[in-house]
Write a structure and sequence with these properties.
The protein is an alpha+beta fold. The chain is built from three helices and four strands, in the order E-E-E-E-H-H-H.
C-alpha cells in the first residue's frame, strides 16, 4: 500500500499589519517581472518584494513583517537619540523636490 503525501495549503490572504483587519491583504505575483505586491483592501497599504520561481504569497507576507520590524527597530533607536525617521530625511518623501517647490510657488499666486 502506497501512502499519498498530503500537500498542505499555505495562506494566500493575511491580516494587515497596519489596520489589523483579518484576511484583508492579498498577494499578486508577477512572475514575468519577478515582483510580488501585497495590498490591503481596507486601508490601501501596499508592499512590493522581489520573488523567484519558488516564492509563495506567505513568503512575501513574511518579508513585509520583517521589513516593518526593521523600520520599527530603526525608529526606536532614533527615538532614543531624540530623533525620528521623519527628521532623518530631507522631508522630500516622493523624491521630486523640484516639483514640490514649483507647486508651492504656483499656489502663491
Amino acid at each position: 500500500m502506497v501512502m499519498k503525501k498530503i500537500k498542505q495549503k499555505l495562506d494566500t490572504q493575511f491580516t494587515c499589519l497596519f489596520c489589523n483587519h483579518e484576511k484583508s491583504v492579498t498577494c499578486t505575483m508577477d512572475k514575468k517581472s519577478n515582483v510580488a505586491t501585497l495590498l490591503c483592501k481596507v486601508c490601501g497599504q501596499s508592499f512590493q518584494s522581489p520573488i523567484n520561481s519558488l516564492s509563495e504569497p506567505v513568503d512575501i507576507y513574511s518579508d513585509w513583517v520583517d521589513a516593518c520590524e526593521a523600520v520599527a527597530e530603526e525608529e526606536a533607536k532614533l527615538v532614543e537619540n531624540g530623533k525620528s525617521l521623519l527628521d532623518a530625511g530631507d522631508g522630500d518623501v516622493d523624491g521630486d523636490e523640484d516639483e514640490d517647490v514649483k507647486a508651492k510657488d504656483e499656489d502663491d499666486y
